Amino acid sequence: MEELNKLNKLSKGERFRGHLGFFWKENSQFFLLLSCIVFFKSAIADLSSISGASMQPSLLDGDKVWVNKLAYDVKIPFTEISLAEVSDPQRGDVVIIDSKKAAKRLVKRIIGVPGDTIYMQNNSLVINGIAANYEVLSRDEDTLIILEELPDRSHQAKLSRHFINRSSRSYGPTVVPEDQYFVLGDNRDNSADSRVYSFVPRGEIIGRSNSVVFSLDSDNRYFPRGERFLAGIDEIQ
Predict the structure, then answer these.
(1) pLDDT of the residue at 198
(2) pLDDT of the residue at 164
(3) I need a labelling partner for 70 at 20 to 30 A (CA). Which of 12, 98, 140, 227 fits?
(4) CATH classification of 44-235 is 2.10.109.10, yes or no?
């Protein structure tokens, strides 16, 4: 109160500067914390929401995933300018992409890395002449859940038992260009990915995700899916 009384005796300009200084003094810790949070989200790690069905069964609508922004590059905060490369994206990684062609953020799985020859025939992948192995995990009237075994990684994928989009089930053969990546959604018959938007430049890859932080079921009044909290993406059954 004493500081405010002193301010009231000053001129209008002095009072404004005084109020500004008083405001900063009272709230500086809050703004410092806010700046740290914004910096952290921009340059180090963030959360990303899953919307839609393109990554089923690995990721569900309503999942919130952890995004490691230092997985591949150290970038200048609030930009896509890389200061240093940490590691290269690997086949099988689930990545978050700031896609210019799609004009939105995408979450997909890397299937082909630079130099790979990708061939896809009726949803069966052949990478560098080596055919992926497939095991049927479950089936119902409409879908198949399979285990897709790539040359060095394996993960679950979902296929439709109806020929609703036959043209997207075949692709290539084509060679992945330098510094670009071929990505697919795990829900192969319901995903707009490299078959639609072509290859993804490395600079558009925001980061890698390995786990679900929490999940809310939009089909069940946003009730929490407790079994998905803090679960590894490729460990969820």
Answers:
(1) 96
(2) 62
(3) 227
(4) yes
